[in-house]
Queue: 2 jobs
Job 1
Amino acid sequence: MDAAVQAAIACMHERFGGPLTVPDIARNAALGRFDFSRLFKEETGVSPGEFLDAVRVGEARKLLDATSMSITEISRAVGYAGPDAFTDSFTARVGLSPGRFRRLCRKEGETLPLPQQDPAPGQGSLAGTVRLPPGHGNARVFLGAFATAVVQYPALAWTIVDVPSDRPSCYSLQNVPEGRRHLLAVAVAAGTGHDPQAVRTALVGGAAAAVTVTAGAVTSAAVRLRAARRADPPVLLALPPLEPPAAVVPHPGCAAAADTAGPEPVRLRVVPAAPAPSGA
């Protein structure tokens, strides 16, 4: 990753609680705002403003889960001018208001946000395989299709896949709105020692590039998981618990799906999807 972008991300993580702006970050990187914004998006997939807001909302998620700070206190701590702006930004990216997210963390009967369909009528499917990096036990994986390169609300479609440590698992995402989509994954993997369930490792990943979903067809893409990096946008969407399974039942196979050995497994092939039942 470009050194200027790395410095910018470090700046965001260190100064998110203050009145930090994109021009401030560009000056810190010794670049003009336009050149900086272009370079940053090329390197990360999102704009500097989107990344900074993701850092702030991600930190707010941690505070809501781990502290008893009020919404107003948290909004100030993560750099928002007031609780209203904070609540609007948090709700738009997490899918729940700060208060509802805190109730979800405390298991007080709150429900998760549902996938949200694009108004466009055309829908296709995504299918393929999910593979873990070496050195991990079984994992439970959240896999979703998004309009942006951030795991944030709304997911256009999502599923949960259990992946064993020693081989890939198949996934299938149905009713994905057509268009250019980001296939992103979040996982929790067990360890590999005498008590695998006593160790937990968070993983992230996805397809190597955005994929094009075509109405009435299946687009195949392989998903690789890896350890999270500081340069990754924080995971913002409220997710279901990802408890690694003690055992994974192997799938017999998956239609229009394949796994590739190359470093950039993206769209592999497209086959016609089965027609929808009449009256559906």
Note: The chain has seven helices and ten strands.
Job 2
Amino acid sequence: MVLQAEEGLLTTPSARILVATAVPAERDAVARAFSSPDSQDSPDLPDSPVEQIWQPGVGLTRTTRTAGVWDLLDAGVGPARAAASVSAALTAAQLAGTPYDLVVSAGIGGGFQPEAPVGSLVVARRITVADLGAETADGFLPVTELGFGTVHHYPPRSLVRVACQATGAQAGTILTVSTVTGTAARAAELRARHPQALAEGMEGFGVAEAADAHGTAVLEIRAVSNPVGPRDRAAWRIGDALTALTEAFGKLAPALESWNRHDDQ
């Protein structure tokens, strides 16, 4: 992001960050962090009004701040749509000569209990696709055991540390699923296969695949809206989770703008 010129590296004057959410409600929750009426005198307020930017295949909500440009994208539900949308945005930025420094997969999601209670924040130390593979008589085999692809992406360690310190989030594995967990048996099965899992969502791995293909750093953050397990709509706290997401980005934005990608090298 804001880097020192050293060893022949170019200096980047400001961070360019793409935030990918599944749906407009999540995108708008992130956007509210940049226009809070409680911080009208803050130097962290946008330097220019929010803009709507249209690029091939994607529409972006852009906020420009002193230390960075933030493009918000409602990328669609599920890993495939998210990967396609994020890849389109990354490609358009690269062709325009303004590549992104970081992609953040953000939104609400289910939390594994009791480690990730409703209303808490989780940052991915590992982004894992939980149901890409094959069912066999002996159980589930991830796609890597079939000789293909990958099932994990690892955000930079220093980035995870910065995000957790800024927001108070827990760090752990966030699972990406194509089918949301709706039973106790399924939740137990996922925890048995992924004992470090704290949360599940539907887009993180797709976002990470697109970022990896473009050589761009990735981060995933989720605000927990419901327990992973039996589907009980009465127990969902979507409004509270969206509020937590807004508050998280209010703290996260300056931290990510000053993150140095070379801290892990």
Note: Residues 80 and 90 are 15 Å apart (CA to CA).
